[in-house]
Design brief:
By secondary structure, the protein is α/β, with parallel strands linked by helices. It is 40% helix and 16% strand. It has an eight-stranded parallel β-sheet. The radius of gyration is 17 Å and the shape is globular.
Length: 264
């Protein structure tokens, strides 16, 4: 089994103490590639350094929508030409707890937060188009606005991932534009009924695996630090839902990953 963790924040300080051991655990579990999605500008340099220290690690360049007010395109451009930078993201829209975002963005209304997030999201989409890199998309409580934007730009994009797919049926329309659906530990949660119901409706050719480590650890590790070695737990649950052998599903997902990112 050879799998890629398509979304793991290995630049997080919670991995510093046991990083080499964590990587070895993942490799022993069949995880042979790792993609660190940029979320915060202060962590981007460490993501790049890790990618150049470990052959198995790659990184993506982007800005989480919660930090859209920090976006400075000029500071990001030098990273795009790096051979280990294989995607743009994570970027997108996040309307969860808007009252907190109003204070963080230093604005007076939800409309202003949404306007800024959309502006920065579109800017990063344009970078992905210009540099022909896949897009890693974060969507929370913003499916309709995200779908509208992505539908407009998708024909020009080199595909992408809907990270931590939120099980919104409407977003399945993006599969025809070479978008993939990142599935992680949430699938193993007891309250993941909506995601369990929609998994069989996603084309097999559009499924990817991720952890979002150190967040969202799967059962039975929920609440603890997540790490790439836990991906087999997600694969096992997915195989149960789809009634497919784990090996068959793993082979398909490996092919999907290669189709989107090339041979890493």
């Amino acid at each position: 089994m050879q799998l890629c963790d398509t979304h793991c924040h290995l630049d997080d300080e919670r991995f510093i103490e046991d990083f080499p051991l964590m990587i070895e655990r993942a490799k022993s579990a069949g995880i042979v590639r790792f993609i660190i999605p940029a979320a915060d500008p202060k962590d981007l340099k460490r993501a790049q350094e890790l990618a150049h220290t470990y052959d198995e690690i790659y990184f993506a360049l982007g800005l989480h929508p919660d930090l859209a007010y920090l976006y400075e395109e000029e500071s990001l451009l030098p990273f795009l030409s790096d051979s280990k930078c294989i995607a743009v993201g994570e970027c997108g829209l996040d309307y969860y707890r808007m009252e907190d975002k109003i204070a963080k963005f230093g604005v007076e209304s939800e409309a202003e937060v949404k306007r800024k997030q959309k502006e920065v999201f579109i800017a990063q989409i344009n970078l992905a188009i210009e540099y022909q890199k896949p897009l890693i998309v974060h969507i929370r409580d913003a499916s309709l606005d995200s779908l509208e934007i992505l539908s407009n730009f998708a024909p020009k994009l080199k595909g992408g991932i809907l990270h931590c797919f939120n099980a919104d049926f409407q977003l399945l329309a993006l599969a025809k534009f070479n978008f993939y659906y990142g599935i992680g530990g949430v699938l193993t949660f007891k309250n993941a009924r909506k995601l369990v119901e929609i998994i069989p409706k996603i084309p097999l050719e559009s499924l990817l695996l991720e952890t979002d480590a150190p967040y969202l650890a799967p059962h039975p590790y929920r609440g603890k630090r997540n790490e790439p070695s836990f991906i087999p737990l997600v694969l096992e649950r997915m195989s149960e839902i789809l009634n497919l052998p784990k090996e068959t599903l793993a082979t398909q997902i490996h092919q999907n990953t290669t189709r989107l990112f090339g041979t890493l």
